[in-house]
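User: Here's a structure from my thesis project, written as structure tokens. My advisor, Dr. K., wants to see whether a designed sequence matches the one we expressed. Can you design one independently, without my sequence as a hint?
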């Protein structure tokens, strides 16, 4: 308990009340929702084949299971041929693993970086602001992640649309030879549920909005926004004030010395060319 209390006392948890820290926490949470809803998905569809000439060969509930990463061309199932008891092995069409895995990878890395950045904000605030390197790195990484969220979410949204088409029971029926015979009846028993994957796309674009909006708050922490001379970019306000206060007496002293020197030189010249009493003597002679 003592070590935990010391750790809490050292940390600056006030940063979580600021937009910079609060948005990082939201990014961390939304990244979890994004890769959990996509990477943990598994769906199923069911179709039926009713053989009119051979009822014994009919199968009214053909289950087809698929899941992340949506390599549908590797998903196989068996369908009756309505010709005796023969069956055919079929595969779904399409491979959408690249877009799905890209989306999940960005979500995982965003989760890890948001967690690391939040820890740095709380416990290593001084190191973060030292030499302005921390804010600059944070700014660049935030811009990159905002762009990657936009690209990955757009790619995954398009891939999800293609997955829905490839797993549509009506499209799957066209792959079966028995369904091409007019005497047989094929139908859809159950379609996949898309609520989880639709949610993943929504969280993907929400993450893009969060990261894009956080660019401004991270930029405000950099020296590019604060401006000022380069030699004072990384110095605290106390040091800058001390530096200017030290320069002020030096400038004042230089001014006083120059003024004293000028005044003394004028007095010396006056004493050399016009001694005391000489003007009176000259006037007496006149």
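Assistant: Designed independently from the structure alone:
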């Amino acid at each position: 308990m003592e070590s935990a209390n010391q750790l809490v006392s050292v940390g600056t948890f006030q940063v979580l009340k600021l937009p910079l820290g609060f948005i990082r926490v939201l990014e961390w949470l939304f990244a979890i929702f994004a890769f959990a809803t996509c990477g943990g998905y598994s769906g199923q569809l069911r179709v039926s084949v009713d053989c009119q000439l051979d009822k014994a060969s009919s199968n009214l509930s053909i289950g087809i299971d698929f899941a992340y990463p949506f390599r549908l061309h590797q998903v196989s199932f068996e369908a009756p041929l309505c010709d005796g008891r023969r069956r055919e092995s079929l595969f779904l069409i399409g491979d959408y693993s690249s877009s799905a895995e890209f989306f999940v990878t960005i979500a995982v890395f965003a989760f890890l970086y948001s967690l690391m950045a939040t820890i740095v904000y709380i416990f290593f605030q001084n190191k973060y602001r030292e030499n302005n390197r921390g804010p600059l790195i944070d700014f660049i990484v935030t811009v990159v992640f905002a762009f990657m969220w936009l690209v990955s979410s757009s790619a995954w949204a398009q891939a999800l649309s293609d997955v829905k088409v490839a797993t549509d029971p009506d499209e799957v029926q066209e792959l079966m030879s028995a369904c091409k015979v007019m005497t047989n009846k094929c139908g859809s028993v159950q379609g996949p549920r898309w609520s989880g994957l639709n949610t993943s796309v929504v969280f993907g674009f929400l993450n893009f909005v969060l990261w894009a909006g956080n660019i401004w708050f991270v930029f405000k922490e950099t020296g590019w926004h604060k401006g000022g001379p380069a030699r004072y970019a990384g110095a605290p306000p106390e040091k800058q004030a001390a530096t200017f206060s030290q320069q002020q007496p030096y400038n004042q002293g230089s001014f006083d010395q120059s003024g004293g020197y000028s005044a003394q030189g004028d007095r010396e010249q006056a004493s050399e060319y016009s001694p005391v009493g000489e003007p009176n003597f000259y006037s007496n002679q006149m």
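When you compare it with your expressed construct, this may help: Strands lie at 42-50, 59-67, 76-80, 87-91, 185-190.
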